[in-house]
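In line with agreed milestones, the collection of sequences with tokenised folds has grown. A representative record is reproduced below.
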Amino acid sequence: MEEDEKRSLLVKELQGLSMAQRDHMIRNMPLSLGEKRWLREKSWSPKGKQQGQKGRGGTFSCSRLRYSCILALHSLGLVLLSGLYAARPWRYALKQIGGQFGSSVLSYFLFLKTLLAFNALMLLPLLAFLVGVQAAFPPDPSGLVPTFSGLELLTGRGCFTHTVMYYGYYSNTTLSQSCASPRETGQDSLPYNMPLAYLFTVGAAFFITCITLVYSMSHSFGESYRVGSTKGIHALTVFCSWDYKVTQKRASRVQQDSICTQLKELLAEWQLRERPQSACGQLWQAAMLGLGWLLCLGTTMGCAAAVLTFSEVMIQRPDADGQGVELLALPLVVSVLNLGASYLFRGLATLERHDSPVLEVYMAICRSLILKMAVLGVLCYHWLGRRVAKLQAPCWEDFVGQELYRFLVVDFIFTLLDSLFGELVWRLISEKKLKRQKPEFDIARNVLDLIYGQTLTWLGVLFSPLLPAVQMLRLLLLFYVKKASLMANCQAPRRPWLASHMSTVFLTLLCFPSFLGAAVFLCYAVWQVKPSSTCGPFRTLNTMYEAGTVWVHRLERAGSGASWLPWLHHFLVENTFFLFLVSALLLRARTRSSSSTSFTLFTRRGSGGADRIYLHSLGWPWVQRSSCQVLGSKARATRPDLPFPQLFLILIKWVLQHGFVFWNELATVPARCLGPTRPSTEPSGPRAWLCPG
């Protein structure tokens, strides 16, 4: 009876508000969707209906019709947003993986999701300003286009060569103002200069990726290296981690598994700190570690020498420019060496028997990273050093783009074979023959495979602008394959450990060895290597960089109307001081992220504590639970990192939702809901308080 009286009082109070105020208040109430729907239906004022029937039927009908149209459009938008949300491959899988396998395995799939966002962000300017324009104004065909045979999906040659997939298809023309036909670059017209667009679009895509990558890395650094965030985390996890808004049985089961796994990780980390180790054990472990590193470095040098020797043999062959399966020889050799070396490193890690699983993963990541960077360094020398001299007459840019495409495809095939057969066979051997449990998920090897594939993509953007689209398709398929293999062939780590810094480490490795190396490779190709004279947008120039210089000289001859553009090009592109300044600012943002996050956490803790004390003095029963949930969520070690585009969309959505009704609601909140006046020591500002009913 008491609950019914409270509900009736709340319904009466809601009936006295306007539609916007009523909807906003119901939306912010800590109730289930069913109760909110019941309140919205009951809050329609019978008095208003009777008045509408007596004399204001037309006005009420128009108001009701307008409100119904607004609700219909709002519902349609929610349906579209929910459809887009459901179409994402990580909609339910990430919660399931985090609950069953812990934050360590979850960090791999979060990193895969971040790479997917990076490639989508890089692909957008390439499609808008380069690929789309060239597809709308295709050049004249230079010869007979071969038919599709199916082998092009593996080799990247054949009919793919005569498409916007590769560098050689793009023309060195300037589109006219009427867009009817292209003209040569030497004529004066409204310039959509394809060489200039090619150079600046690729440069802008790399610059946007760099800014996004540094932002994501600094954000992840601030989230994972909080000062004082682990104090009392065990009590917070036990008493404050449950989300009371979860009502479905499946979701509650996933949340229960997640809390259980998180407690195991916290206890394992605490036990690892308290476990002492003898001097003999430390000496034996150091000896095994040194021997393992010697074997790993020797293996890396042997693999690099093998790749260099085999690439030289491929160049010296008379049919080095073949069209068939022989083009896959070098990618096959590199993939076999990478796969065999990764299994060797895994065996060495088993013999070393690290006490800390975190140290074991970091050690494996460092070894695999050294191997892959050494192999990629040899391949870069092979492409820009040896192949350019060998293929001066044909289009060497197309060959490099096709070679990188083949490396991506072959690496993906080996990853599929290793996931579908390697992990399956190892699981059957462990269960049937060795009488053991399922093997664990190899985080280090799989993460380095992702970084290796992304590095290949960045290396090939200049020579194949659609390579990020191929990488996106590869990542989507890889997500489903790895998830299925994880659920069927792997078990949770036998020694649970807290992956509090894994996302930061992955993004750091992606930024400095991977992205920086690809940027150096492309800068060398743009500034130093002579383009092909028979294909591509830079066929008449000595270097690709000369396209910008020629454009600046044309602007200087055109007159004083565009005199600021040559000045901008001189100080932003030709002057190296700006590049050093940008690099210093990025590094400064990287190092200051930890201190700024700690200061923000300290200031928010003081104001948040004062707010909770005041709300608790009003007698609101859910204040303790809500604050406890906030502390529990902030104390969790692993959270999905927000990329820059997702953060921008969230900001726009928040402004659209709260900006229009904020001040209107502030002036019309009932007096009973405002409560007593806040003390003068509290920070002042516009606040709307929910009536507890």
The longest helix spans residues 93-136. Strands lie at 173-175, 182-184, 192-193. The longest strand covers residues 173-175.
